[in-house]
Amino acid sequence: MVTLVPMEMKTKLVSHLEISRLVLGIWRLIDWNKTHQELLSFIKESVEIGVTTFDHADIYGNHECEAAFGKVTKNNSLLRDQMQLVTKCGIKLNTNKFPERKLKYYDYSASYIISQVEQSLKNLQTDYIDVLLLHRPSPFFNPEEVAKAFDQLKSSGKVNHFGVSNFLPLQLESLQAFVEEPLVTNQIEISAYSLEHFENQNLDYLISKKIRPMAWSPLAGGELLTPKTEKGTRLIQAVEAVAQELGVTQTEQILYQWLLMHPSGIIPILGTGKIERIKTAVDSLNIQMSLAHWFQIYNASTGKELP
Description:
The chain is an alpha/beta fold.
């Protein structure tokens, strides 16, 4: 039987920032092929069931996802008050929208960060961003420039909080040394399949700093639903065994709960445009796994027992 525990759909990143326990990623919004009304209904229903935080980036959908989202949520102050908008910047794509660029590169100059926030505000048709993240660490990175941008964006009320994505501990530490505002999250790839940040001590570091990570690709890009590798097959067999013991019919709920129960306070980012799958993910908060179950899945991922 499934063991039910009280479901808490909100979590605090810092004292003045509360987001939903699960975040909805907007990377593939254009691919969802929803009409204006379908997308609006989808967003509203997500908010109604407790998934109120939406993860964007300026480059998603070849720079089109933010604007598509903003078109359906504009002029709806009640909905905006219920949502938390996260977006990212820093990557310059060499797409057909920017034919003058000869290659993809990263730009964390103060002027570029500020200009991209201005564009995101325009696209999302909002007055402020709840959390701005730097999309990827760069080998050419001046934290003083970033701090200058953050100070201006914070004082102007255009961004409330700041964080990073895909940073390693020393990279985050270096930036924090120059930035007055506490960095509120590090958005990194975490799943039962991808253990990189367990092994490189990033999660240990985030625990020590009381920074809660957001997990992108929590289902390993679908590998944990329809495995194509020996590791994926081994893992899903372990997950199915745990699900059977707990009386859970949806194996993805076990995969979400595996992340949710970790002491670092992992916040999974859902990548679906289907409301039923969001409901399935929300229901995973009601599942209680044992520590032995957690390690059963961990060991299946590494392919060996603990030393």
